[in-house]
Amino acid sequence: MNGFLPLVVDQALAAAVRAPSPQNTQPWRFVVDGPRIDVWLDRDRVLAVADPAGREARLSCGAAIGNLTLALRVNGVRSRVRILPDAAEHDLLAVVSIEGNTRPSTLDRRLTEAIYRRHTNRRPLSEREVPASARASLRSAALGEGGQLEFLDASGRYAQVSALVRRAETELATDPDFRAEAAQWTGRSADCPDGVPTTGFGPPADVPGVVSLRSSHENRSIPPRQFEQDPVLAAVLTRDQGAAADVRGGMIMERVLLTATAEGLATSFLSQPFEARSTRARLLAAFRDLGQVHTLLRIGYGLPTRMTARRPAPEVTTVRSAPKVPAW
């Protein structure tokens, strides 16, 4: 990083890099130029086999933007996000502009604290029911960001989508190119700043479940365990489509994930049907009447697991000129 940043902006960038990303690739870069923070897609960290169009990578960058703006707001800084419409052709995805002061809400503080506890839980969840109040909070989180969270058991899509997850996992588990790419990013040591360490894996399932977690994230050195047989599944959607909607979808997704963390819920992703050639179009078609589906979430109660490491914010940030944070 060149130059020095106000503490508020430092903290916001540190929050941004805590966003989730496929295989913990962290496909983002930031350029700070006065009151403007540009968010760039790092093409070198886009998964060529699993995510050739960069859809999941843009989703991750959107999640980073969500953390960035939330952390600014909790420190009294108002910002505006402009998502660029040609995000598919241009690696500059969005511009975050610092515009003045604001008063953070209690919810802002609660969700900002959740940034540093949120993590992907690939282990078995309990059969404890997710209450209606928690579901309502998650739906409200999506709506507050201009999106929608659809619980599959309530929409009648549960059987169809879970079958697509199983089919996709079977296809990917036997795809040598996918397996080679996954191997590059998984099984790393716990202190590695990117990729998924073995400590973040889950145990093998002792009996097949309704949905399949990634075989590439199984720790076969520990005994098999029974996974929940009726997991809560939900889809994050936007009404619009395209590359810009991917970025917006990531902001919505992160708001939902942070709300889940604040509610004491564990979450993980079911990305297989987006990544397998035979299921991608069918999954999109299953939600076409609602808009663009961006991600599938598994939600429930579980024991905490270790958080994965991140590259430090200075490593992914260039400072052209430091902003002057508005004073009260």
TrEMBL record:
Gene3D superfamilies on file: NADH Oxidase
Which InterPro entries does the record match to this protein?
Nitroreductase-like, Nitroreductase/BluB
According to UniProt, the name of this protein is Acg family FMN-binding oxidoreductase
Q: Which organism is it from?
A: Amycolatopsis silviterrae
